[in-house]
User: Which sequence fits this backbone?
């Protein structure tokens, strides 16, 4: 395993019974970068992180931290993790929780510094069970930071936070990363990956489906979806300017397009009985479909059950 | 090129963790955590005390197994308190910490896993000692029970042995059941076991069939050892009781290890 990578999954496969959680996944986290694993819920992001951290043993392939086994203490003392947990013991005070984790590391940050860093000065002497949801998240962040890690894992760190707390959190992560530290982040918000990451790895159904800078990924997901009820055949719609993919959902038709204005103009010219026109940005899930659906223009991908409905309508 | 020579030196320069200090810190927080949990601390300390006060007032001057009931009940209620302190702290503690995901965070951290168990054992020993001290004071004040210091220390020592078999049983339960079912399972095991082994009322006044069942329970062998330290005549042979308790401890440890392995690969993302 390569020492230049802070964390690494090399051709990892992980299975839970019949479910293939990771299939031949390779992720290489370079020292000093912020890497986002982006994908919808259930894509395998948490499994990937748990495997990197040595919590799960891969069925095939190798996981490593700093070129060594994730269970090696020499690697563990350089890592901090904010996992998706429902809580820590409620009867210990914030200060005590941080102190107990500080004892695990050879050169922990001073307690006061951790409290300031995580914005917990005012509740340091409060029991964890009496904190608000946002404050609890900040305790989890403090526990990840107390060992002064070189590599920070953040598994869905802002789930359930309000907009303001989310932005505060992003600022903290950026400050951490500016010190030359490495961050691995999982999220299902493109916005979050875009705000924080140097590089995004798109994960779906346990596979890496795309990889690139936020700008590259956004360019591939920049399209719009034009929805309307129209009697024009799908094959014809697929040839309209900008259209990358067409699908029929109930009575309506979705046209995925890279040039919404041109598509709408052509569509209105083609069908004067058209109604129910809507133009929306693509959701992340739709963006994934656009990427997995192939790169060529005018990919016509009606699905079998939907095709039946098309015939009924016609 | 230079990184190869710098890296090992940097590793050497890293300050080392003080393992003893780590374990002491961990034990202290483990104790505070349980002490502030009334469900645990009040139940562990107050229930044996209440029962002792009630039954020693009623039966104090009677005799059982050749010793005054006030001494006898001190022995058996202290044993009951130690068993419940060990069972509940390990069983419920491990099950809920596993359920919360707290355990995963600890496993990712560089905490030596032995520290977790040493801290829990340490905490259970402290609670067990508190139970014994509380009951002893109550016995001295309300029943005029007196001990030579050496005899009291012997009783305490034998009582503390009980932490080990029941902590390991708790561990096995904690790794097998979830946070909601673990307390139920423990109560279902603990209550009939304590009753049938004479921890709540002298086994000599229970029907003979109960005693024949009790011989298969770790609590019975434990209680007989403790009764021997307060001047009673134990049923059976002390070395047999010790061997049986050691056997139960090993069996529970094996169960716990099995449950831990089974749980390890399963804990979903």
Assistant:
């Amino acid at each position: 395993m390569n020492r230049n990578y802070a964390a690494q999954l090399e051709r990892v496969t992980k299975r839970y019974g019949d479910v293939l959680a990771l299939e031949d996944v390779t992720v290489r986290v370079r020292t000093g970068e912020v890497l986002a694993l982006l994908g919808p819920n259930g894509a395998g992001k948490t499994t990937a992180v748990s495997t990197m951290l040595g919590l799960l043993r891969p069925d095939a392939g190798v996981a490593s931290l700093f070129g060594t086994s994730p269970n090696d203490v020499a690697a563990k003392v350089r890592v901090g993790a904010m996992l998706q947990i429902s809580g820590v013991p409620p009867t210990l005070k914030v200060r005590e929780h941080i102190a107990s984790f500080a004892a695990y590391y050879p050169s922990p940050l001073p307690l006061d510094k951790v409290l300031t860093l995580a914005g917990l000065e005012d509740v340091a002497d409060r029991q964890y069970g009496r904190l608000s949801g946002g404050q609890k998240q900040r305790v989890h962040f403090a526990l990840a930071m107390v060992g002064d890690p070189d590599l920070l894992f953040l598994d869905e760190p802002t789930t359930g936070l309000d907009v303001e707390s989310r932005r505060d959190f992003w600022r903290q992560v950026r400050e951490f990363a500016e010190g030359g530290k490495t961050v691995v982040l999982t999220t299902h918000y493109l916005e979050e990956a875009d705000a924080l990451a140097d590089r995004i790895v798109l994960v779906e159904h346990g596979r890496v489906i795309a990889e690139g800078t936020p700008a590259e990924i956004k360019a591939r997901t920049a399209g719009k979806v034009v929805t309307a009820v129209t009697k024009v055949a799908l094959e014809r719609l697929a040839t309209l300017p900008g259209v990358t993919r067409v699908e029929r959902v109930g009575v309506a038709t979705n046209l995925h397009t890279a040039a919404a204005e041109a598509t709408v103009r052509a569509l209105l010219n083609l069908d004067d009985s058209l109604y129910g026109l809507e133009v929306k940005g693509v959701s992340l899930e739709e963006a994934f479909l656009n990427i997995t659906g192939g790169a060529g223009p005018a990919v016509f991908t009606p699905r079998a059950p939907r095709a039946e409905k098309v015939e009924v309508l016609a | 090129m230079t990184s190869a020579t710098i890296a090992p030196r940097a590793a050497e320069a890293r300050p080392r963790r003080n393992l003893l200090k780590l374990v002491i810190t961990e034990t202290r927080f483990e104790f505070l955590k349980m002490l502030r949990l009334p469900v645990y601390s009040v139940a562990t300390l107050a229930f044996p005390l209440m029962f002792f006060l009630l039954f020693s007032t009623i039966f104090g001057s009677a005799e059982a197994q050749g010793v005054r009931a006030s001494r006898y009940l001190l022995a058996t209620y202290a044993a009951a308190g130690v068993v419940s302190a060990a069972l509940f702290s390990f069983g419920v503690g491990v099950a809920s910490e596993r359920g919360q995901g707290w355990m995963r965070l600890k496993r990712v951290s560089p905490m030596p896993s032995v520290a977790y168990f040493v801290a829990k054992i340490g905490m259970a020993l402290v609670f067990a000692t508190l139970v014994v001290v509380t009951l002893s004071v109550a016995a001295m004040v309300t029943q005029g029970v007196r001990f030579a210091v050496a005899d009291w220390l012997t009783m305490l020592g034998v009582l503390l042995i009980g932490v080990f078999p029941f902590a390991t049983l708790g561990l096995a339960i904690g790794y097998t059941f979830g946070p909601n079912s673990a307390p139920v399972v423990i109560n279902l095991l603990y209550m009939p076991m304590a009753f049938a082994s004479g921890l709540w009322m002298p086994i000599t006044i229970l029907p003979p069939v109960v005693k024949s069942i009790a011989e298969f329970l770790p609590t019975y062998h434990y209680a007989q050892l403790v009764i021997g330290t307060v001047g009673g005549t134990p049923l059976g042979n002390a070395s047999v009781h010790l061997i049986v308790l050691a056997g139960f401890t090993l069996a529970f440890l094996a169960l716990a290890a099995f449950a831990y392995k089974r749980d390890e690969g399963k804990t979903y993302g």
Notes: Chain B touches chain A at residues 11, 14-17, 21-22, 25-26, 29, 32-34, 36-37, 97, 99-102, 104-105, 107-112, 265, 267-269 (CB under 8 Å). The mean pLDDT of chain B is 87.
